[in-house]
């Protein structure tokens, strides 16, 4: 096959894998090069604490992936992927013993929010019911003609608001806290414009598809994508770190599942001046400080519903979450950080060993934080689950520098691959009609630095693959159209 009908993908995270699989499915001869010894990037899992006890390395709960047009089009279930749902999607406990509780159903969630039921239902119900129509518009570039403009406008209207302003819609502290915890996934001050966008997206997709986990760990997402790629004739080479573009084989198109700084280092002398400047100035976000736990008998949450929830947000009331996110973004380590807790084993019991269960936690910390936040994380757990320390039989810490060492896209512990400020959230790494184009003919950026941003959904890869196929004069199937 001629080099024009071939593609090289650098980086084997979920976006690189999705791009490679979609290009191979479209008939190209595809080679994927991954620096690590295994593909997956943020969708990897391991048994580092106890044999058989399975912890996800980074990405763990996947509402956007289950609802992703790209992953659905690739038919990953035929290649071994199985989604599993917890009984309760998410719980946000408060100090008074109450909690905001997120269920798969909009109506059932609303019913638990008392005086805020009608407001919650009105905010999320219409978009959740039409997610299949919305998904491609929401999970794609902003600067294009949407397939469902009125539906997208209704979805998008509340996303422009600061999360603290949208919170005024709710009267109860439980609803306000639940909203704050989901909005905090944006790693931005909740007082900033568009800080509602990621939270609205997660809630809408979650109500449509559930806060699912992959059976056998998030590594199952990567393995199934790799299986699709190979089934369509693609090849994967691991342990190949590209530091000079002259290492790359000739190809019709090259896709880069890299952060913009790495692209600037590889192609700096060929990038247009504006693209090079944008990639060099690309802003990074706060970091993650991860504490994996082996917990005998599970976490003894005071709120019984948290014991049945796949995800628990530990951060207190809206005002406290807003304060900690502001401090972290400003480079200050809060005494009580916002902590996300994953109890994936509740949906996928195969991850546990007997009565010892893997509990996945990480705190939001300043970019590049080099201190020890382990005690702060454990104190936050004890705050809502007294006695949890006595149940911990194993522990592993992943600091921001460890994230960066394992995956250069996560520089400074920034697992979102870039700050989600307004320009980068809406336009990606640089303002352009095609956010995936680097300005070098045939070379495309496909990492989470491009729209629609972070997650295991593969839609950044799908967008870049579509652009690459247009460059070759080809038309892609499904989500590439």
Describe the structure in brief:
This protein is an alpha/beta fold and 481 residues long. The chain has 18 helices and 16 strands.
Distance between the termini: 24 Å
In the CATH hierarchy, the third-tier topology of the largest domain is known as Polyamine Oxidase, Chain A, domain 2
- List the uncertain runs: none
Q: What Rg, in angstroms, do the CA atoms define?
A: 21 Å
> Strand order, biggest sheet?
7-6-12-13-14-11-15
Would you tell me the overall average pLDDT?
96
Shape: globular
Major beta sheet, specifics? 7 strands, mixed
* Total E-strand runs: 16
| Approximate strand percentage | 15-25%
What class do helices, strands and sheet pairing give? Answer: alpha/beta
Helix content: 25-40%
Count of DSSP H/I helices: 18
State the CATH architecture of the largest domain. Alpha-Beta Complex
What is the highest CATH level, the class of the largest domain?
A: Alpha Beta
- How many domains, as an integer? 2
